[in-house]
Amino acid sequence: MRFPSLQEATQRTAEEPLRDLMPPVDASWVTYANKIRQSSTLDEAGVSSSLWDLVRNEHLDLLVVEGYLKLLRTLNSKTKIAPVYQLRRDDSINIETEGVDHSIIIPFIDGRDWAFAVVYFDCIHWYDSERGKQIPPLSASGGQRIVEGWRGPHHNDSKDSGAFMLIGISHIMMQQPHVSQEAANELVQTFRVRMFIELLADELDPTPESLCKKGIISGAREDGASIFVSQNDRVSPSSQFEEDSFNDTMYVLHSAARDGRSEPPDPSTLDPSDQIVCASAGRGTDPPQLGYQQMSLMNEANEVRSATGGFRNNAGDPYRYILPAGPLVATSSINPYPRPSGMNTSRRRAAAPRRRTTTPRIDMESEPDIKSLINRRVILENLSSALRFTRSAKASDLDTGFMLWNLGKNRKTGGKLQQRYQRVLFNQKMAKRVDQNLKIDGLDDRQWNTMKKDFGYWKVWVDVRDVGLKYDDLGEYVALCALPGSMNSENMTEDYQKRLIAAFEREIENHSSPLHQWLRDARQLCDLILTKSIPEYRLKLDDYETNIEGEVSDEVWKSHTSTDPVGDFHD
Fold it and tell me: Where do Basic residues bias regions lie (predicted)?
């Protein structure tokens, strides 16, 4: 898979009719917005100062931006939106992405200007509509690279930076590329009017009937059409996703409810499994709070914790990126309900959401592209993450099935290597119980059923381990390092898991592939980590930076898989 060039993306959007990029607003609302814009005083306008500034082409303040982001979060999108984070250009911004298994948009406020980042599974795109502005120092704990030169359209007036940002975010939420420069210039004023209407209505694409019920208008039409466009032209941000080849360049994770829930879960039962937070790495204190009076839009209402565990639906849609590029066909959502994203500006981690999404169907007949998944960087990242967590806390032997299950489903217990190891141990210990349906004492039926589901989801890691066991020089568990840490077995069908294992086994058996040798090189470190026998002295792997770009050279590989001490350790 490759990312299209900016030229390709721009050319694609330049050829689309403007009405498909942003449908025209109703003429009566343009008239109303113009009346507000021409008001000489705020009292005469009869709206809040934030909305007055919106239609008068002024800077967008936090209240307007957060209000519109709140509306965008209600879309059935595969991408999540984090709360606004204040940007300080002299700080190094660390984006903690371990355990995050979906794309996340992070809006940034920089004085009165706006920018945003999009965190994908393998990279981070930075969008700033101001020409020539440097990308701030970003890093990601998940090792995602920062893509240089990947920009959206640029504004001609700094007052439009917020509108340009929200246009970009809305298109990403629709799984569409950025609009072209020419289209953005033509759309920005229309988009401001559209925002004004939707913020008044507190919903995207409100119908005349809903506006009438809310007392915003009277005499609504009876045809039920959108207020923005005629029924024949209607294309809105809340419409069904369109098939788009550009989607093949984006990371797509598909989550659905494990228990087939149609209602939001009880908050007391939720588990903050996937998390993302921007921290100010250059300071030992909490990042500054935004200096606005209207803070209610950034309080706990936007920090709802995510549902326990992730899962697949009956179709078992796997990660998009483990398959060769192909068309995505949108299907209906499964038990959708919205949950706002959580990204706390304090040092406390906030839970990212697991909202039901419109799930693309994957071409399940395609074979897994193993060569695109496996490289030396993947192995080093899995080892370094495992080493770091083992250094921080050497867990005692937790040998009960229930405790191993808790470790296996907790994405924050340790690195991905430990998690896979714990899942293998769990499946080994529970195989007889699950086969005979012997429920563990103290578990209710819901917990037991979830445990049995996890047993099936996690079997793929037992199969990966078993592939490595066929070779005496590989040991028992080093094969668990081979696949990317972002891969989640809960999102693979049973059939796909089988084909993945078959492709993995063929790759190890292939004498022209370096995979077997790489795993042999990594075996000693893997064994030391999983047996909690790591040396007290510093290893080169302790210093491994997961966000370094480029291929892993032979020299780097050899030094980072070595168990020799680094530095002078004489007291």
Answer: 346-358
Q: Alpha-carbon distance 35 to 96, whole Å? A: 46
Residue type, 40: S
Enumerate the β-bridge partners of residue 115.
Answer: 108, 128
pLDDT < 50 positions in the chain: 1-4, 6, 9, 12-13, 15-20, 99, 219-364, 392-399, 412-413, 569-571
List, as own/partner pairs, every contact residues 374-379 make where C-beta atoms lie below 8 angstroms and the sequence separation is at least 24, other chains included. Answer: 374/482, 374/483, 374/507, 374/515, 375/551, 375/552, 376/518, 376/551, 376/552, 376/557, 377/143, 377/551, 377/552, 378/481, 378/482, 378/483, 378/484, 378/485, 379/481, 379/482, 379/518, 379/519, 379/522
* Residue pLDDT, tens place only, 340-372: 333 333 333 333 333 333 333 333 456 667 777
Q: Would 350 be classed as within a structural domain? A: no
Residue 204 lies in a domain: yes
Q: Mark whether 85 and 194 lie in a shared domain.
A: yes
* 406 vs 402: CA distance, rounded Å: 6
* Whole-angstrom distance, CA of residue 299 vs CA of residue 474: 50
Assess whether 306 and 388 both reside in one domain: no
| Interatomic CA distance for residues 267 and 514, integer angstroms | 47
**Total domains present in the chain:** 2
**Phi, psi dihedrals of residue 49, rounded to the nearest 5°:** -60, -35
Same domain, 131 and 203: yes
Q: Hey, what amino acid is at 357?
A: T
Residue 392 contacts residue 412 (beta carbons within 8 Å): no
Instruction: State the residue range of the domain holding 71.
Output: 6-330
pTM of the predicted model as reported, rounded to 2 decimal places: 0.41
